[in-house]
Amino acid sequence: MGGTADSVDRSTVHASHQASPLGPYLLFLGDTVEPGYAKTAFGLRDWAPERCIGELVLPGGTVSTGLERLSSEEAHAKGARALLIGVASPGGVIPPQWLPAMLDALRSGLDIVSGMHSRLSDIPELAFAAEAHGRRLVDVRVPPANIPIGTGAKRSGKRLLTVGTDCALGKKYTALSVTRGLQARGLDATFRATGQTGIMIAGAGIPIDAVVSDFLAGAAETLSPAADENHIDVIEGQGSLFHPGYAAVSLGLLHGSQPDMFIVCHEPGRTHVLGYPDVRLPTIEEVILQTVALGKLTNPAIRCVGVSVNTASYTDEQAQRLIAAESDRLGLPVADPLRGGPAFDQLLDRCQG
Amino acid sequence: MGGTADSVDRSTVHASHQASPLGPYLLFLGDTVEPGYAKTAFGLRDWAPERCIGELVLPGGTVSTGLERLSSEEAHAKGARALLIGVASPGGVIPPQWLPAMLDALRSGLDIVSGMHSRLSDIPELAFAAEAHGRRLVDVRVPPANIPIGTGAKRSGKRLLTVGTDCALGKKYTALSVTRGLQARGLDATFRATGQTGIMIAGAGIPIDAVVSDFLAGAAETLSPAADENHIDVIEGQGSLFHPGYAAVSLGLLHGSQPDMFIVCHEPGRTHVLGYPDVRLPTIEEVILQTVALGKLTNPAIRCVGVSVNTASYTDEQAQRLIAAESDRLGLPVADPLRGGPAFDQLLDRCQG
């Protein structure tokens, strides 16, 4: 172990060490007719409306975000600075019929931002045009080069990490909701993105699961640098300490984030790890104990400030009942951030310090 | 998270998915005059003598392994199949004066095996000559492509992992010694290498700390595949669960290895994590408890079979006394594998099942 992350491709611009944040965006929907493929565009519209100027749909496309339809030139005139690929294509490659619109975007002064599997800079026409027009091709799946090894040294400022009983149950949206809730209270809070959708929403971040193992904790340290004592970084969690495939990602992120506070995210009713029918889901209590046991290595003051439950499949009344019961049982604030209300206010109270 | 490790460079041959194991070796010492730079060559001579045919020293070089001095052609005639770069150079790059000998090795039918920072395949002359002569350029720092995500599924066969209170205190040599000890007893045991020196010694393996985080556990699963019920894989550990920079690597390796048994490696007298003067070293007991607590996710039957102490700086008598005292205190076999003796025999007894 040692050295720097030199096996990472340096030819592609990445989302963290940006001279300036990504966007504002023109959301690109291509010629898709399947709303399920446009999850990224919908996520951006919902979570970063202030960074979305409009949408660009190609002939034949039927999916819309409801935002104003603009050409790249019109969008640039209205303040857009990047075309964001908001739609997935089967196979994760850029279809040839998208290329003319992407080249036009570069000509119009827009960067291109993508979370697709194939890299923008691997398409020679795009690489050439970006160079010619002085624009950036940003692949948010690519981590920065030259990430240092984690030091474990204490940094100034406060940090909150969302952790989970599993993958895919609301760690990103909890972190976003808490960030906004704290900001609405006049606090100095920053959302720190660790996955591609989060990076697009924030306009910056590090795709933590794409970092070479040796540099995981160091990447998390880089992501939330030293700050003012009253500043709160709210860090998007990944995976789970009890996940047979991804626990290492969660641990590196925990150690590097050295959070003062964490929120456990959970989906009531889920009994097994997603995609692992033989692996029992840990309880919320197990996750709290394990997160404290492991997190204290880099922050002995780490504490759980509450639980975020994903009650998307519940009625309002069912959700209220569940939230009250869980809060009683655990002796902690429990809330569904997407429902807000007094329960979420109590959770935010704890996050203030 | 998901997909395959496609951000890994595929242009370089790596040490695992080899059609055939690496070597036997001709050890290349270059023109070095500093024995400290030749640690790799000495390690190979000491730990894989049966794979070392001779040494190649350039004019001006004064360091020797004591093996027979051979040209590439002579070594090939005696059974060598790879020139192993056994010496480090300042900066980790191949000095130009080494190139003629390396090209001659390829012409003589030898592969080239390197653990240096700069990649062999990035040197056009070498890439061209390897292609022309049908030889391999093997960079042992480069992990294989297409590593799957960890499944956590139980595999047949037995597994033993060496873990540690820290980095750099004998996990590799303990695993090698235990493998040989078991083999000497007629057991079917295989050393599984996870670092570059180990990979050179074994002729195969995966440099686990160079694997992209998402695929860490999957890489460890690939490293020790399903085997006969009585077969024992002895897996080289990395880092420590209490290391602020590398704990994630240790956890991914632990989860993917799903060991039935582990040995805790420790250097008596070390009080702080190497290079981290502010981080207290965990106790052996803490490492045992943590390894069981985390390892049981993928193997509920995980158990500690003993402790390996590195007593290199002790006299024989001091070492015997320390080993007896630690064994009494912990109620476990404690041995320095490099000293052997009855204590090591007791440790091996436990490793048999």
From TrEMBL, chains A, B:
Domain D-glutamate N-acetyltransferase-like C-terminal stretches: 149-342
Stretches of the chain forming a coiled coil according to its record: none
Residues annotated as domain D-glutamate N-acetyltransferase-like N-terminal: 66-143
InterPro entries linked: DgcN-like (IPR011669), DgcN-like_C (IPR035086), DgcN-like_N (IPR035402), P-loop_NTPase (IPR027417)
Pfam families given in the database record: DUF1611, DUF1611_N
Protein known as: DUF1611 domain-containing protein
Species, as recorded: Sphingomonas caseinilyticus
